[in-house]
Amino acid sequence: MAHPLPPCPPERASLAANIAFLSRPENYPDATASVHVRETHMSWVFLTERYAYKLKKPVRYPFLDFSTLERRHNNSDEEVRLNRRLAPGVYLGVVALARDPTGRLRLEGAGEPVEWLVKMRRLPDEWMLDRAIAARRVPAERIAHAARLLVDFYHGTPVVTLAADIYRRRINDRLETSCTALLQARYSLPAARIQTVCSAQRSFVARHPAMIDARASHVCEAHGDLRPEHVCLLPAPVFIDCLEFNRDFRLLDPVDELSFLALECERLGNLDVGQTFLDTYRHATRDIPPAELIAFYQSLWAMLRARLCVWHLDDPTVSTPTKWITLALDYLALAETRVQRLT
Fold first, then answer.
1. Which helix (H) or strand (E) covers residue 285, if one does?
2. What are the tens digits of pLDDT across the range 238-248?
3. Residue 36 to residue 24: CA distance in whole angstroms
4. Which residues pair with 231 in a beta bridge?
Protein backbone atom coordinates (compact mmCIF):
# COMPACT_ATOMS: atom_id res chain seq x y z
CA MET A 1 0.00 0.00 0.00
CA ALA A 2 1.32 3.44 -0.90
CA HIS A 3 1.58 5.99 1.88
CA PRO A 4 -1.27 8.51 1.93
CA LEU A 5 -0.68 11.77 0.14
CA PRO A 6 0.33 14.25 2.88
CA PRO A 7 -1.34 17.65 2.91
CA CYS A 8 0.96 20.50 1.88
CA PRO A 9 2.01 22.80 4.78
CA PRO A 10 -0.67 25.51 4.27
CA GLU A 11 -3.39 22.87 3.91
CA ARG A 12 -2.07 21.07 7.00
CA ALA A 13 -2.39 24.27 8.98
CA SER A 14 -5.93 24.83 7.71
CA LEU A 15 -6.84 21.26 8.54
CA ALA A 16 -5.56 21.63 12.09
CA ALA A 17 -7.54 24.87 12.45
CA ASN A 18 -10.71 23.20 11.14
CA ILE A 19 -10.34 20.27 13.54
CA ALA A 20 -9.76 22.64 16.46
CA PHE A 21 -12.85 24.65 15.48
CA LEU A 22 -15.01 21.54 15.19
CA SER A 23 -13.80 20.27 18.56
CA ARG A 24 -15.39 23.19 20.45
CA PRO A 25 -19.07 22.89 21.50
CA GLU A 26 -19.81 26.61 21.05
CA ASN A 27 -19.22 26.33 17.29
CA TYR A 28 -22.21 24.08 16.58
CA PRO A 29 -25.57 25.47 15.41
CA ASP A 30 -27.43 23.21 17.84
CA ALA A 31 -26.47 23.72 21.46
CA THR A 32 -24.33 20.91 22.85
CA ALA A 33 -22.47 20.63 26.12
CA SER A 34 -19.65 18.55 24.67
CA VAL A 35 -18.01 17.31 21.48
CA HIS A 36 -16.33 13.92 21.36
CA VAL A 37 -13.75 13.53 18.60
CA ARG A 38 -12.93 10.15 17.05
CA GLU A 39 -10.25 9.65 14.43
CA THR A 40 -10.41 6.81 11.92
CA HIS A 41 -8.01 5.86 9.16
CA MET A 42 -9.71 8.17 6.66
CA SER A 43 -11.80 10.65 8.63
CA TRP A 44 -12.54 12.51 11.83
CA VAL A 45 -15.94 12.16 13.47
CA PHE A 46 -17.28 14.87 15.78
CA LEU A 47 -20.06 13.72 18.10
CA THR A 48 -22.38 16.28 19.66
CA GLU A 49 -25.25 15.36 21.92
CA ARG A 50 -27.65 14.93 18.98
CA TYR A 51 -25.57 14.63 15.82
CA ALA A 52 -22.44 13.13 14.29
CA TYR A 53 -20.39 15.06 11.74
CA LYS A 54 -17.83 13.24 9.58
CA LEU A 55 -14.92 15.13 8.03
CA LYS A 56 -12.89 13.24 5.42
CA LYS A 57 -9.10 13.47 5.57
CA PRO A 58 -7.31 14.97 2.53
CA VAL A 59 -5.59 11.68 1.67
CA ARG A 60 -5.01 9.64 -1.45
CA TYR A 61 -4.44 5.89 -1.78
CA PRO A 62 -4.48 3.63 -4.85
CA PHE A 63 -8.12 2.78 -4.11
CA LEU A 64 -9.34 6.17 -2.82
CA ASP A 65 -8.83 9.86 -3.55
CA PHE A 66 -9.92 12.52 -1.04
CA SER A 67 -7.09 14.86 -1.99
CA THR A 68 -9.19 17.85 -3.15
CA LEU A 69 -12.14 19.70 -1.67
CA GLU A 70 -14.25 18.80 -4.69
CA ARG A 71 -13.48 15.10 -4.33
CA ARG A 72 -14.31 15.18 -0.62
CA HIS A 73 -17.58 16.94 -1.41
CA ASN A 74 -18.54 14.43 -4.10
CA ASN A 75 -17.63 11.50 -1.88
CA SER A 76 -19.65 12.91 1.00
CA ASP A 77 -22.68 13.19 -1.30
CA GLU A 78 -22.16 9.59 -2.36
CA GLU A 79 -21.86 8.46 1.25
CA VAL A 80 -25.23 10.01 2.09
CA ARG A 81 -26.92 8.56 -1.00
CA LEU A 82 -25.67 5.04 -0.43
CA ASN A 83 -26.22 4.91 3.32
CA ARG A 84 -29.81 6.06 3.05
CA ARG A 85 -30.51 2.62 1.54
CA LEU A 86 -30.01 0.87 4.89
CA ALA A 87 -30.17 3.75 7.37
CA PRO A 88 -33.23 5.85 6.47
CA GLY A 89 -33.55 8.94 8.64
CA VAL A 90 -29.96 8.75 9.90
CA TYR A 91 -28.00 10.46 7.12
CA LEU A 92 -29.29 14.02 7.12
CA GLY A 93 -27.13 15.47 4.36
CA VAL A 94 -23.84 17.17 3.55
CA VAL A 95 -23.12 20.50 5.26
CA ALA A 96 -20.42 23.10 4.75
CA LEU A 97 -17.79 24.42 7.08
CA ALA A 98 -17.61 27.90 5.56
CA ARG A 99 -15.60 31.07 5.99
CA ASP A 100 -17.78 34.17 6.15
CA PRO A 101 -16.80 37.60 4.70
CA THR A 102 -15.13 38.55 7.99
CA GLY A 103 -12.89 35.47 7.86
CA ARG A 104 -14.68 33.56 10.63
CA LEU A 105 -15.47 29.86 10.29
CA ARG A 106 -19.11 28.84 10.54
CA LEU A 107 -20.60 25.35 10.48
CA GLU A 108 -23.78 25.14 8.39
CA GLY A 109 -23.50 28.87 7.80
CA ALA A 110 -23.12 31.22 4.86
CA GLY A 111 -19.80 31.86 3.22
CA GLU A 112 -17.17 30.14 1.11
CA PRO A 113 -16.98 26.39 1.86
CA VAL A 114 -13.58 25.31 3.15
CA GLU A 115 -14.68 21.76 4.01
CA TRP A 116 -17.71 19.50 3.69
CA LEU A 117 -19.05 17.20 6.39
CA VAL A 118 -21.57 14.39 6.40
CA LYS A 119 -24.20 15.13 9.05
CA MET A 120 -25.91 12.20 10.76
CA ARG A 121 -28.35 11.69 13.54
CA ARG A 122 -26.33 10.34 16.46
CA LEU A 123 -27.18 6.76 17.30
CA PRO A 124 -27.15 5.35 20.85
CA ASP A 125 -23.77 3.75 21.54
CA GLU A 126 -25.27 1.05 23.72
CA TRP A 127 -27.32 -0.33 20.81
CA MET A 128 -24.43 -0.70 18.38
CA LEU A 129 -24.03 -4.43 17.85
CA ASP A 130 -20.40 -4.58 18.99
CA ARG A 131 -21.32 -2.83 22.26
CA ALA A 132 -24.37 -5.03 22.73
CA ILE A 133 -22.26 -8.17 22.27
CA ALA A 134 -19.69 -6.90 24.78
CA ALA A 135 -22.48 -6.17 27.28
CA ARG A 136 -24.07 -9.59 26.61
CA ARG A 137 -27.31 -7.81 25.78
CA VAL A 138 -28.29 -8.86 22.26
CA PRO A 139 -32.08 -9.05 21.93
CA ALA A 140 -32.97 -11.95 19.66
CA GLU A 141 -36.03 -10.22 18.22
CA ARG A 142 -34.00 -7.21 17.07
CA ILE A 143 -31.34 -9.45 15.51
CA ALA A 144 -34.06 -11.33 13.67
CA HIS A 145 -35.54 -8.03 12.47
CA ALA A 146 -32.13 -6.77 11.34
CA ALA A 147 -31.48 -10.01 9.47
CA ARG A 148 -34.79 -9.76 7.62
CA LEU A 149 -34.11 -6.14 6.67
CA LEU A 150 -30.71 -7.04 5.28
CA VAL A 151 -32.02 -9.99 3.29
CA ASP A 152 -34.79 -7.79 1.87
CA PHE A 153 -32.09 -5.28 0.90
CA TYR A 154 -30.14 -7.94 -0.99
CA HIS A 155 -33.32 -9.15 -2.65
CA GLY A 156 -34.20 -5.63 -3.80
CA THR A 157 -30.72 -4.77 -5.06
CA PRO A 158 -30.14 -5.54 -8.74
CA VAL A 159 -27.78 -8.40 -9.43
CA VAL A 160 -24.52 -7.21 -10.99
CA THR A 161 -23.65 -9.30 -14.01
CA LEU A 162 -20.14 -10.72 -13.67
CA ALA A 163 -18.65 -13.44 -15.82
CA ALA A 164 -17.56 -16.44 -13.76
CA ASP A 165 -13.91 -16.09 -14.76
CA ILE A 166 -13.93 -12.42 -13.76
CA TYR A 167 -15.43 -13.25 -10.38
CA ARG A 168 -12.80 -15.93 -9.78
CA ARG A 169 -10.10 -13.44 -10.77
CA ARG A 170 -11.49 -10.97 -8.23
CA ILE A 171 -11.29 -13.65 -5.54
CA ASN A 172 -7.70 -14.43 -6.49
CA ASP A 173 -6.84 -10.74 -6.44
CA ARG A 174 -8.19 -10.42 -2.89
CA LEU A 175 -6.17 -13.40 -1.82
CA GLU A 176 -2.90 -12.30 -3.42
CA THR A 177 -3.19 -8.66 -2.34
CA SER A 178 -3.46 -9.67 1.31
CA CYS A 179 -0.69 -12.23 1.03
CA THR A 180 1.72 -9.77 -0.60
CA ALA A 181 0.96 -7.02 1.90
CA LEU A 182 1.26 -9.19 5.00
CA LEU A 183 4.60 -10.62 3.86
CA GLN A 184 6.24 -7.20 3.75
CA ALA A 185 9.35 -7.42 5.92
CA ARG A 186 8.67 -4.11 7.65
CA TYR A 187 5.67 -5.62 9.48
CA SER A 188 7.69 -8.55 10.96
CA LEU A 189 4.74 -10.93 10.80
CA PRO A 190 5.26 -14.74 10.81
CA ALA A 191 5.86 -15.43 7.12
CA ALA A 192 5.48 -19.21 7.34
CA ARG A 193 2.01 -18.93 8.88
CA ILE A 194 0.93 -16.41 6.25
CA GLN A 195 2.21 -18.60 3.43
CA THR A 196 0.39 -21.62 4.86
CA VAL A 197 -2.94 -19.76 4.89
CA CYS A 198 -2.46 -18.36 1.39
CA SER A 199 -1.40 -21.74 0.03
CA ALA A 200 -4.54 -23.35 1.47
CA GLN A 201 -6.71 -20.63 -0.06
CA ARG A 202 -5.09 -21.03 -3.48
CA SER A 203 -5.52 -24.78 -3.27
CA PHE A 204 -9.20 -24.41 -2.43
CA VAL A 205 -9.83 -22.21 -5.47
CA ALA A 206 -7.91 -24.64 -7.70
CA ARG A 207 -9.89 -27.63 -6.43
CA HIS A 208 -13.33 -25.96 -6.48
CA PRO A 209 -13.52 -23.59 -9.46
CA ALA A 210 -17.16 -24.51 -10.13
CA MET A 211 -18.15 -23.63 -6.55
CA ILE A 212 -16.47 -20.24 -6.84
CA ASP A 213 -17.79 -19.57 -10.33
CA ALA A 214 -21.38 -20.31 -9.26
CA ARG A 215 -21.29 -17.35 -6.86
CA ALA A 216 -20.80 -14.86 -9.71
CA SER A 217 -24.54 -14.93 -10.42
CA HIS A 218 -25.31 -13.75 -6.85
CA VAL A 219 -23.16 -10.61 -6.80
CA CYS A 220 -24.93 -7.35 -5.99
CA GLU A 221 -23.99 -3.86 -4.82
CA ALA A 222 -23.85 -4.66 -1.13
CA HIS A 223 -22.86 -2.75 2.02
CA GLY A 224 -19.14 -3.45 1.66
CA ASP A 225 -18.06 -3.05 5.31
CA LEU A 226 -20.62 -4.98 7.33
CA ARG A 227 -19.05 -5.03 10.79
CA PRO A 228 -20.90 -5.18 14.14
CA GLU A 229 -19.96 -1.55 14.90
CA HIS A 230 -21.97 -0.57 11.81
CA VAL A 231 -25.18 -2.27 12.96
CA CYS A 232 -27.49 -0.40 15.32
CA LEU A 233 -30.17 -2.48 17.03
CA LEU A 234 -32.86 0.16 17.27
CA PRO A 235 -36.47 -1.10 17.25
CA ALA A 236 -36.11 -0.46 13.51
CA PRO A 237 -32.48 -1.57 13.01
CA VAL A 238 -30.15 0.39 10.73
CA PHE A 239 -26.84 -0.34 9.03
CA ILE A 240 -24.44 2.58 8.70
CA ASP A 241 -21.01 3.41 7.23
CA CYS A 242 -21.26 1.41 4.04
CA LEU A 243 -18.15 1.50 1.90
CA GLU A 244 -18.80 4.47 -0.37
CA PHE A 245 -15.46 5.39 -1.90
CA ASN A 246 -15.03 2.47 -4.30
CA ARG A 247 -18.00 0.73 -5.90
CA ASP A 248 -15.91 -2.27 -6.89
CA PHE A 249 -15.37 -3.09 -3.21
CA ARG A 250 -19.16 -3.15 -2.68
CA LEU A 251 -19.77 -5.74 -5.40
CA LEU A 252 -20.13 -8.85 -3.28
CA ASP A 253 -21.92 -12.15 -3.02
CA PRO A 254 -24.33 -11.67 -0.07
CA VAL A 255 -23.01 -14.91 1.43
CA ASP A 256 -19.52 -13.38 1.32
CA GLU A 257 -20.70 -10.26 3.17
CA LEU A 258 -22.74 -12.19 5.74
CA SER A 259 -19.81 -14.54 6.34
CA PHE A 260 -17.75 -11.48 7.25
CA LEU A 261 -20.36 -10.26 9.72
CA ALA A 262 -20.53 -13.73 11.27
CA LEU A 263 -16.74 -13.84 11.58
CA GLU A 264 -16.63 -10.46 13.32
CA CYS A 265 -19.45 -11.37 15.71
CA GLU A 266 -17.66 -14.60 16.59
CA ARG A 267 -14.41 -12.69 17.17
CA LEU A 268 -16.28 -10.50 19.66
CA GLY A 269 -17.68 -13.54 21.43
CA ASN A 270 -21.09 -14.27 19.91
CA LEU A 271 -21.59 -17.13 17.46
CA ASP A 272 -25.38 -16.93 17.40
CA VAL A 273 -25.74 -13.51 15.79
CA GLY A 274 -23.87 -14.39 12.61
CA GLN A 275 -25.67 -17.70 12.42
CA THR A 276 -29.03 -15.90 12.59
CA PHE A 277 -28.11 -13.68 9.65
CA LEU A 278 -26.88 -16.61 7.55
CA ASP A 279 -29.87 -18.80 8.44
CA THR A 280 -32.30 -15.99 7.60
CA TYR A 281 -30.63 -15.57 4.21
CA ARG A 282 -30.72 -19.32 3.51
CA HIS A 283 -34.38 -19.62 4.48
CA ALA A 284 -35.50 -16.60 2.46
CA THR A 285 -33.51 -17.31 -0.70
CA ARG A 286 -33.20 -21.11 -0.73
CA ASP A 287 -29.55 -20.46 -1.52
CA ILE A 288 -27.69 -23.02 0.60
CA PRO A 289 -23.95 -22.34 0.31
CA PRO A 290 -21.58 -25.12 1.42
CA ALA A 291 -20.03 -24.66 4.85
CA GLU A 292 -16.56 -24.76 3.32
CA LEU A 293 -17.43 -21.83 1.05
CA ILE A 294 -18.34 -19.78 4.13
CA ALA A 295 -15.06 -20.82 5.78
CA PHE A 296 -13.16 -19.81 2.64
CA TYR A 297 -14.85 -16.40 2.48
CA GLN A 298 -14.12 -15.88 6.17
CA SER A 299 -10.45 -16.72 5.65
CA LEU A 300 -10.25 -14.05 2.93
CA TRP A 301 -11.87 -11.48 5.21
CA ALA A 302 -9.61 -12.36 8.14
CA MET A 303 -6.54 -11.82 5.97
CA LEU A 304 -7.95 -8.56 4.60
CA ARG A 305 -8.60 -7.29 8.13
CA ALA A 306 -5.06 -8.27 9.13
CA ARG A 307 -3.81 -6.32 6.13
CA LEU A 308 -5.77 -3.23 7.12
CA CYS A 309 -4.40 -3.49 10.64
CA VAL A 310 -0.77 -3.48 9.59
CA TRP A 311 -1.36 -0.67 7.12
CA HIS A 312 -1.91 1.56 10.15
CA LEU A 313 1.81 1.14 10.81
CA ASP A 314 2.55 3.03 7.60
CA ASP A 315 1.03 6.13 9.16
CA PRO A 316 3.89 8.05 10.81
CA THR A 317 1.46 9.52 13.33
CA VAL A 318 0.14 6.17 14.59
CA SER A 319 0.25 6.20 18.39
CA THR A 320 -0.43 2.53 19.21
CA PRO A 321 1.58 0.29 16.84
CA THR A 322 1.49 -2.66 19.24
CA LYS A 323 -2.31 -2.62 19.17
CA TRP A 324 -2.36 -3.04 15.40
CA ILE A 325 0.23 -5.82 15.34
CA THR A 326 -1.68 -7.72 18.03
CA LEU A 327 -4.96 -7.36 16.17
CA ALA A 328 -3.35 -8.42 12.88
CA LEU A 329 -2.06 -11.58 14.58
CA ASP A 330 -5.53 -12.25 15.98
CA TYR A 331 -6.96 -12.08 12.47
CA LEU A 332 -4.20 -14.31 11.13
CA ALA A 333 -5.12 -16.88 13.78
CA LEU A 334 -8.76 -16.66 12.68
CA ALA A 335 -7.73 -17.22 9.07
CA GLU A 336 -5.78 -20.30 10.17
CA THR A 337 -8.85 -21.79 11.85
CA ARG A 338 -10.87 -21.22 8.69
CA VAL A 339 -8.47 -22.81 6.22
CA GLN A 340 -8.35 -25.89 8.45
CA ARG A 341 -12.02 -26.38 7.51
CA LEU A 342 -11.34 -26.36 3.76
CA THR A 343 -11.34 -29.63 1.79
1. helix 271-285
2. 999 999 999 99
3. 9
4. 239
